[in-house]
Amino acid sequence: MRSPAALASLVLSASLVASLCTSRAFAAETGLEPTVVSRPTLAPAPPPAPAPLKKSRIALALAAGVVTALVPVALGGTKMANGQTDEAKNDGFVVAGVGPALAPIVSHIVIGEYARAAAFGAVPVAAEIGMGALVAAKPDAVFQGTVFSRTSFAGLFSLNLFGAAVGLVDVMLAEDRHRPPPITVGPLVGGGRYGLVLGGAL
Description:
- By secondary structure, the protein is mostly helical.
- The protein has a domain at 55-177.
- The chain has six helices and three strands.
- It has helices spanning 4-30, 55-82, 86-110, 114-137, 147-172, 174-177, and strands at residues 41-42, 184-190, 193-199.
- α2 packs antiparallel against α5 (147-172).
- The protein starts with a helix and ends with a strand.
């Protein structure tokens, strides 16, 4: 003897088969096909807007960048002024260049922009590495070298400072990048209905 669960399963299957046969017979007699009503389809939602940055956090980022730049500059300048040899003075120059190279990286990290930290830190860091490589290969390049060696060092040092300044200016403009858009508009299509969907900060 079949269990109640098996009997219920058989009755349900028979009901589904009978319903399907009835639906097909009705469609064959009337020429009408069952209509599937689709739900309205919403347009893909726009990506979430970045969280707004407080001015105090931007000010903190700028302060961190400036301190990062000035402390090595002061230390390197002191070492260069007290150096008695070209090597000692070269070390002072290289130490001074570390601060500007790291300043835009530190500032962007404070506000959570890690990709921009790498992008805006690439040029000053590369210039700092170039300065170190130049004085390591030719210790007299800065003070007793050729016009080309002195010009090359000056260009690298200037590129370091310029890259740091650009990176700090980019941090100053971070508030505009993190301001959410006022209104977003998207289409609403489906089920014979058309319209617009509004969203955003109203």
